[in-house]
Write a structure and sequence with these properties.
With 125 residues, the chain is of the alpha/beta class. The chain has one domain: STAS domain (Transcription Regulator spoIIAA, 2-Layer Sandwich). It is built from four helices and eight strands. The strands form two sheets. It has a six-stranded mixed beta sheet, with helices on both faces. A two-stranded parallel sheet has the order 4-6. Strand 7, helix 3 and strand 8 form a beta-alpha-beta unit. The model has no long low-confidence stretch (mean pLDDT 90).
Length: 125
């Protein structure tokens, strides 16, 4: 099983029972991109559910359809998600995502990796 992957949107890998996403800088995501991101993540996970640490600081815009897709289909094989957001723009995008889409899994916005791992620790098996 491959334990890392990179596409035009992000680098992602499995580390200590957590899928880690690092979105690329100055990124805009439309629905097609969201679908590719989810598809690639599911291939990486190979049928196993994981908590996800998602560094969204590189995202500058995401369409409404992409947000909706990531909140619904993007929750497949996901135990919980921690979004790393340390600037006002990514915080606004994350707040919109959470308010408008209400993901069906435990989700938290954190300001750094350590906070994210602390939140996700109860979901690691």
């Amino acid at each position: 099983m491959k334990n890392s992957f990179e596409n035009e949107y992000a680098e992602y890998y499995i580390d200590n029972g957590v899928v880690r996403f690092i979105y690329k800088q100055n990124l805009t995501i439309q629905l097609a991109g969201a679908m590719e991101i989810v598809s690639d993540r599911l291939q990486l996970q190979n049928g196993k559910a994981y908590p996800i640490l998602c560094d969204i600081r590189g995202i500058i815009d995401i369409s409404k359809d992409a947000r909706r897709y990531l909140a619904t289909e993007g929750s497949s094989l996901t135990k919980a998600v921690a979004f790393i957001s340390d600037n006002p723009l990514s915080q606004i995008l994350t707040d919109l995502y959470l308010l408008a889409n209400m993901p069906p899994i435990p989700t938290k916005v954190v300001s750094n990796e350590l906070e994210g791992i602390e939140f996700l620790s109860e979901f690691i098996k």
